[in-house]
Amino acid sequence: MINRKLDLRSINESLFLWGPRQTGKTSLLKTQFPAATYIDLLKSDEFVQYSKKPSLLREHVEYKKPDKLIIDEIQKVPPLLDEVHWLIENTNTQFILCGSSARKLKQGHANLLGGRAFRRTLRGLTAHELEEEFKLETALNHGYLPKIYLSKNPDEYLRAYVTDYLKEEISAEGLVRNLPSFSEFLDLASLSDTEMISYSSFARDVGVSQPTIKSYFQILIDTMIGEFLPAFIKKPKRRVIQAPKFYFFDVGVVRKLTKRGWVEPGNELFGKAFENWVFHELCCYRDYLNPDLEISYWKLPSGIEVDFILNNMEVAIEVKGRDNINSSHLKGLKEVIKDHKKIKRRILVCLENKPRKTEDGIEILPYTEFLHLLWNRKII
Questions:
Q1: CATH of residue 83
Q2: Structural domain for 65, as ranges
Q3: Do 370 and 339 belong together in one domain?
Q4: Beta partners for residue 118, in sequence order
Q5: Checking phi first, is residue 342 left (phi over 0); if not, alpha (psi -120 to 50) or beta?
Q6: How many whole angstroms separate alpha carbon 258 and alpha carbon 98?
Q7: Do 338 and 282 belong to one domain?
Q8: Contact, 347 vs 379, CB < 8 A?
Q9: At what angle do helices 154-164 and 251-258 cross, to 10 degrees?
Q10: Of 81, 227, 51, 256, whose CA–CA distance to 165 is shortest?
Q11: How far apart are CA 37 and CA 29, in angstroms?
Q12: Are 39 and 178 found together in one domain?
C-alpha cells in the first residue's frame, strides 16, 4: 500500500478535499478515517435522495451525531452545502467534503462555507510516496495517477480517462455547448504543455472566439486538469515576459492527448515531460507541506528563462532532461542573478549521476538528490 504524503488526521476543522479524478481521494479518506460516516453521491440512490430533499442530511446528523461525516462528490448536490453550513454552526460534527471540480459550485453560487472549512488538494503520486517503486521513465509515460502508474497497460487506462473526462466532467455537467470544438481545443492545449499560451492562436486554430478559448482554459483549471504558472514580474531591472505558462496535471494524459510515443532520455519530448514532472513534485510539496510557497517562472524577451522561481526570488530552478550539463544550459541561472542579486540558491535539476557546484555557485543536482532535499525541506 502506498503511504500518501497528504495527512488530514491532524485537522480538527471541517474541510474540502479537492483533486482530479482517480488521484485516490476516496482511498485516502477511507484509510485515514475508517470510522467516519460516509455519503457517496456517485451512488444513484443517495444522489436522488439528497437532491430531492437536502434537509435529510440535517435530520440524519442530528439523530446519529457522527464525529466525522464524509460527503464524496459534493459538487453533484450543491444545496447540501447550506445544510453543512448550518450543521457546522450548530453541531460538533466535522465535515470532510470531497470532489473533483468546484466549477458547478462556483457557477451556481453555492455556499462555499465562507472560511468555515479548510482547503486541501490531493494530486497524483509523488516519487517520495512511491519510494523504491518510483521509476522516472514510468512516471513520464504512465503519469502520476495511482491506478495508471501501477498498470502494465497504461495506454488503455489513459484512453478511458480522457474519454471519461469529456463524458463525465464536460458533457454530463453541460460545461460547454460545443463538445467537438472543446475536444479539438484539448488536443491543442496538450501540445502547449509547459509553454506560454496565445489565446488568439488557439482561437484561430479551433475556430472559436478568444473569450471562448479563455473559458475553455478556465474549465481545465476548475476541473483540475491543468493550471497556469505565473511569471515573476516583481522589481524587474529589464523588461520581462508577463504571460503565464500552462501545465497539465498529469504527463501521462498529455502523452495520450498528443499521441506521443514512449518518451525516454534523448527523445525530443523527454525534456518537456521531465519539466512537467518537476512542476508536479513542486506543487505536491507546496500543497502537502508548505502551503504558503509561491511558484512562478522568469523569462526575458530574448528567450532566456528560468523554469521555476520559489517565493520572492529565493530559489531559482532550471530543469534539463539530460546527463551532460554544460555552460550553455546555465544561461538562465547566470542571467537571473544579474537582476536579482539576493537569490539564495540557483539549482539545475538534471540526469547527471553526482551533485556538484559551479565556480559561480550554481548547484547541478541529479533529480534524485533534488527530490531528497525538497521533501526533507532543505530546498526552501
A1: 3.40.50.300
A2: 15-121
A3: yes
A4: 15
A5: alpha
A6: 30
A7: yes
A8: yes
A9: 90
A10: 256
A11: 11
A12: no
DSSP of 193-223, one letter per residue?
Answer: TTEE--HHHHHHHHTS-HHHHHHHHHHHHHT
In a domain, 380, yes or no: no
Domain-ending residue, one of 121, 138, 166 = 121
Do 215 and 310 belong together in one domain? yes
Same domain, 347 and 215: yes
Q: Is residue 10 part of a domain?
A: no
Residues listed for the chain:
380
Distance CA 286, CA 308 (A): 13
Q: Both 65 and 187 in a single domain? A: no
Cell of residue 155, nine digits: 495506454
Backbone phi, psi, residue 349, to 5°? -95, 130
Type of residue at 299: K
Residue 259 CA to residue 261 CA, distance in Å, equals 7
Domain count, the chain: 2
Are 316 and 233 within one domain? yes
β partners of residue 98:
17, 72
Same-domain check for residues 135 and 108: no
Domain boundary among 121, 139, 161: 121
- Is 237 a domain residue? yes
Has residue 240 been placed in a domain? Answer: yes
| Neighbouring-strand partners of residue 120 | 17
From CA 332, how far away is CA 235, in angstroms rounded?
Answer: 17
pLDDT in tens, the chain (380 residues): 799 999 999 999 999 999 999 999 999 999 999 999 999 999 999 999 999 999 999 999 999 999 999 999 998 898 999 999 999 999 999 999 999 877 766 655 455 676 778 999 999 999 999 999 999 999 999 999 999 999 999 999 999 999 988 877 787 667 788 889 999 999 999 999 999 999 999 999 999 999 999 999 999 998 899 999 999 998 777 899 999 999 999 999 999 999 989 999 988 899 999 999 999 999 999 999 999 999 999 999 999 999 999 999 999 999 999 999 999 999 999 999 999 999 999 999 999 999 999 999 999 999 999 999 999 999 99
Look-up of cell digits 476541473: 223
Owner of C-alpha cell 485516502: 28
